[in-house]
UniProtKB/TrEMBL annotation, chain A:
UniProt-recorded Gene Ontology molecular function terms: ABC-type maltose transporter activity; ATP binding; ATP hydrolysis activity
ABC transporter domain span: 4-234
Lineage: Bacteria, Pseudomonadati, Pseudomonadota, Alphaproteobacteria, Rhodobacterales
Protein's organism: Szabonella alba
Record keywords, A-Z: ATP-binding, Nucleotide-binding, Transport
Name of the protein: ABC transporter ATP-binding protein
From TrEMBL, chain B:
Topology versus the membrane: Multi-pass membrane protein
Keyword entries, A-Z: Cell membrane, Membrane, Transmembrane, Transmembrane helix, Transport
PROSITE patterns according to UniProt: ABC_TM1
GO cellular component, one term: plasma membrane
Localization (cell): Cell membrane
InterPro entries: BP-dep_ABC_trans_perm (IPR050901), MetI-like (IPR000515), MetI-like_sf (IPR035906)
Keyword Transport recorded: yes
Protein name, per record: Carbohydrate ABC transporter permease
Length: 334, 276
């Protein structure tokens, strides 16, 4: 069981309020991702749940038990840190066994669980090594191993993949997702990378300056962003946000059109401009179009074979049914 | 660009380094040499360097006249005890300063260090009175406690510097893994800081071993360590340079040997904070 409830939680460091009153419920077994730009308070929120920081006010309940004043060691949560935070003086075996040793579990059971975790994470051959002798990916696996052995009520991940190179990151992302499917334990995952958020989450919590901007499933956020901030943050490449007369035509202050919802043509379309940069990914091509009079640059996603080049004049047609409209306050117009 | 060093330059530098080293070591070397001379040779003018009749007579006399092992034992207890006691107090203190600093941590550290700037004789009188009051004069426990306090600022400072280099996330990981504060310090922080703690221990053992002001003023016979042993041979009644040298050599030999075998740790200890 790992249902986590935050009620009117706040956090201030001296005069600075990092988290204004915030309510949030994370259901048992859910993979929740906290996402937002750096400094939005997502890591602080995670540390409040972990108990590594004390809340300034409000309450936190884990599994229906009051946990606000509990020390981190009593909350039955496991955490994976960005820096891995392995114990450098212990072997991999001792690192993974450490939480079990602290819990006073008998040696045979410790050994059984460590062996099992190691085989799940492909670490069997490395058990006698020290963290300094492992690669980044292996260290991250040890950190995960240390978290899973004691069967916590929830896992907390604090930007666990940001120290890995791009290829490894994609691999570990899949491994963590698979782990979640297999264990079906609550996971809270903090990242600034919206691709990680979209691909892994059951539920995404978008944060800005300590405020929750929107909570929803990845596709819910993609299709129905509640405001301009979420619209601009979720989706890759980012949504084109257009103000001015073009927006006024749709009775809105701002309209948003995703790059994948614009078609390109050499000859016809309501908008036109010149290609400043074209990025060929093979499967897709991204055009950055200047001089449209709508915004500084309009990003368009087209098929891999579409062959416009720098300086070409092209025409754009937005899909009328997926234009997002926002009012003066930046809120979505239904 | 790396600095180019010619072989000639290297040779000159090496010779210079040896010269400086020898200059610093000379008093100790001279003491050791003198300890093997007769009293007459010891005061010969011009001084005799290496070619004299080497004798162990002084050592025999010194050992016969005073019980070296008792002084040695006192030194070991006072130096070891004060360092151990200091660590027990300093590890938690340095932990809290390094990992849960408050607004005043820097000030407290500076204030602690400032006590080292006070001339020791300034507090001799009050401490002497306290010792009389509590019957601590000429006791090993009294001296151990005083020397521990004298060196405590240095122990705390050194440990603080080492602890600062340990990432806080590792301690947080230990907390998440269910470690209590005691377990966190015992199983995670201390083993990680072993090199730093070793340097601190070494430096403090040496400082306590060589401490003379308090040992001479607060002991008489029972608790007197090796510094008092040396002092007892610098008598005003006659010149016994050879015997004084023998006593000095016996007193510094243990710490010299310890220092020799732990040079690496010691260098790190003495340059703490200088290199990350």
């Amino acid at each position: 069981m790992g249902r986590i409830v935050l009620e009117q939680v706040t956090k201030s460091f001296g005069e600075v309020t990092v988290i204004p009153p915030l309510d949030l419920t994370i259901e048992d077994g859910e993979f929740t991702v906290f996402v937002g730009p750096s400094g939005c308070g997502k890591s602080t929120l995670l540390r409040l749940i972990a108990g590594l920081e004390d809340v300034s006010s409000g309450r936190i309940a884990i599994d229906g038990t009051e946990a606000t004043a509990l020390s981190p060691s009593k909350r039955r949560l496991a955490m994976v840190f960005q820096s891995y935070a392995l114990y450098p003086h212990m072997t991999v075996r001792k690192n993974i066994a450490f939480p079990l040793r602290m819990a006073g579990m008998d040696k045979a059971e410790q050994e059984r669980r460590v062996t099992q975790a190691a085989s799940v994470l492909n670490l069997t051959d490395y058990l006698e090594r020290r963290p300094g002798q492992l690669s980044g990916g292996q260290r991250q696996r040890v950190a995960i191993g240390r978290a899973i052995v004691r069967e916590p009520s929830a896992f907390l991940f604090d930007e666990p993949l940001s120290n890995l190179d791009a290829a490894l990151r994609v691999g570990m992302r899949l491994e963590i997702s698979e782990l979640h499917k297999r264990l079906a334990t609550t996971m809270i995952y903090v990242t600034h990378d919206q691709v990680e958020a979209m691909t892994m989450a059951d539920k995404i919590v978008v944060l800005r300056a300590g405020h929750i901007e929107q909570v929803g499933s990845p596709l819910d956020l993609y299709h129905n962003p509640r405001n301009v901030f979420v619209a601009g943050f979720i989706g890759s490449p980012t949504m084109n946000l257009i103000t001015g007369p073009e927006a006024a035509k749709h009775n809105a202050r701002t309209i948003g059109v995703r790059p994948e919802h614009i078609t390109v043509s050499a000859t016809e379309g309501p908008w036109s401009g010149t290609v400043a940069v074209s990025e060929h990914l093979g499967s897709d091509t991204f055009f950055h179009v200047h001089g449209t009079g709508l915004a500084d640059s309009i990003t368009v996603r087209a098929g891999g074979e579409v062959g416009f080049r720098h300086g070409d004049r092209i025409h754009l047609t937005p899909r009328a049914d997926v234009i997002h409209r926002f009012d003066d306050k930046g809120l979505r117009i239904a | 660009m790396a600095r180019a060093v010619t072989p000639r330059r290297k040779a000159v530098n090496t010779a210079l380094a040896w010269a400086v080293g020898l200059l610093i070591f000379f008093p100790i070397l001279w003491t050791i040499l003198t300890s093997f001379k007769t009293e007459a040779t010891a005061i010969a003018d011009p001084p005799v360097w290496l070619f004299f009749d080497w004798t162990l007579e002084n050592y025999a006399v010194v050992q016969e006249r005073s019980d070296y092992s008792r002084f040695l034992w006192n030194s070991i207890i006072i130096a070891g005890g004060s360092t151990l006691l200091g660590l027990i107090i300093a590890i938690p203190a340095a932990w809290s300063m390094a990992f849960v600093p408050s607004r005043f941590t820097k000030d407290i550290l500076l204030w602690m260090l400032s006590t080292k700037m006070l001339p020791a004789v300034g507090v001799l009188y009050p401490i002497y009175l306290i010792f009389i009051q509590f019957g601590l004069l000429d006791t090993r426990i009294g001296l151990t406690v005083v020397i521990m306090f004298i060196n405590l600022p240095i122990i705390v400072w050194m440990l603080y510097t080492y602890f600062k280099e340990i990432p806080g996330e590792i301690l947080e990981a230990a907390r998440m893994d269910g470690a209590t504060l005691r377990e966190e310090i015992l199983y995670v922080l201390t083993p990680m800081a072993i090199p730093g703690i070793a340097s601190t221990v070494l430096l403090n053992v040496i400082l306590a071993w060589n401490e003379a002001f308090w040992t001479l003023n607060l002991t008489a016979a029972k608790a007197a360590p090796l510094t008092a042993f040396i002092a007892s041979y610098s008598s005003p009644e006659g010149l016994f340079y050879a015997k004084l040298s023998a006593a000095s050599t016996m007193a510094i030999a243990p710490i010299l040997i310890l220092g020799w075998f732990s040079q690496k740790q010691l260098v790190r200890g003495l340059t703490f904070g200088a290199v990350k």
